[in-house]
Amino acid sequence: MSVHLADVPLWAAILAAFFLVLGAGLALLGTIGLVRLPTFYQRIHAPTLGTSWGAAGMVLASMIIFTAASGRLVLHEILIGVFVTVTTPVTLMMLGRSALYRDRSERNPEVPQFGASDADDDTAQGAS
Amino acid sequence: MRWLLPYPLLALALALMWLLLSGVSPGQVVLAVGVATGASHALAALGEASPAIRRWLAIPTLAGVVFHDIVVSNLEVAGILLGIRRTRGAGFVTVPLTTRSPSALAILSIIVTSTPGTAWIDYDAARNEVLVHVFDLVDEAHWRQLIAERYERLLMEIFE
């Protein structure tokens, strides 16, 4: 597919630029938060800016530019957004649970400790 | 009908994905239907139960609610990171759930995770409780109510 950016009308270019700057700005802000926030559990919140409207902004910008330039509806970028959204919980839960497990083992007062099911957990671990 | 297409929604989604990636033409439609049917039967061999959708009408409502909340919480978290808003302290909230449907729980985890400011950390299947970490925790009851009333109630309407 050959695309000539000069064919893109001005309104589409402005709209795409807006979404691109919005998406890239949110992703950058999330990355800065990931570096600067003090605790692990606070840091995992920052990149969700990049996986929600950060990704959505960039995907929308790409859809607008290629639809306007090629003259037909280009929608396949939406799959990027769908798969980013659906797969994020998997990695987040893996990181979150391992951090929580370590903090609980070390009796870190910052996290909720094993609850009433404590005894069950211990026997389950002993058996495995 | 079930023996022909064990997971109609999955097959439809796969066929749509195929057509989005390869473009719509008669040949590609045939290929998309073939791939979607084959993949459904491959999953059927694993014996997963197909989720039954009971109320389709609740899906657009839930999508609208989630879209609104993601926009609002993007602004809130971005404001805190930029230093415009002050965070009132992050913390954990234990949220008791009612539903045990695996599909509803999966969608709920996607909603909680993709909304900036809340992260699904751990799920206790024995007590049906989820541990959520909230970036800007003001009132624990507010978050319990938000997840139970706003998302879980609609998910239960859809799946149970």
Radius of gyration of chain B: 19 Å
User: Most extensive interface, residues per chain?
Assistant: A-B, 35 and 32 residues
Gap from first CA to last CA of chain A: 56 Å
Q: Note the overall shape of chain A.
A: elongated
Number of strands of chain A: 0
Runs of chain A in which pLDDT lies below 50 for 5 or more consecutive residues are 116-128
Overall pLDDT of chain B: 88
Assembly form of the protein: heterodimer
Give the biggest beta sheet of chain B: 3 strands, antiparallel
Q: How are strands sequenced across the largest beta sheet of chain B?
A: 1-3-2
Q: Fraction of residues of chain A in helices?
A: over 70%
Query: Residue-averaged pLDDT of chain A, rounded?
Result: 83
Instruction: Supply the number of helical segments of chain B.
Output: 5
- How much beta of chain B, percentage-wise? 5-15%
Structural class of chain B: mainly alpha
Number of helices of chain A: 5
Order of helices and strands of chain A: HHHHH
Written overview of the protein:
The complex is a heterodimer of chains A (128) and B (160). Chain A has five helices and no strands. With 128 residues, chain A is an all-alpha fold. Chain A is elongated, with a radius of gyration of 22 Å. By secondary structure, chain B is mainly α. Chain B has two domains: 8-44, no CATH class; 58-159, no CATH class. The longest helix of chain B has 25 residues, at 58-82. Classes of the chains: A mainly alpha (128), B mainly alpha (160). The interface between A and B is medium-sized, with 35 and 32 residues.
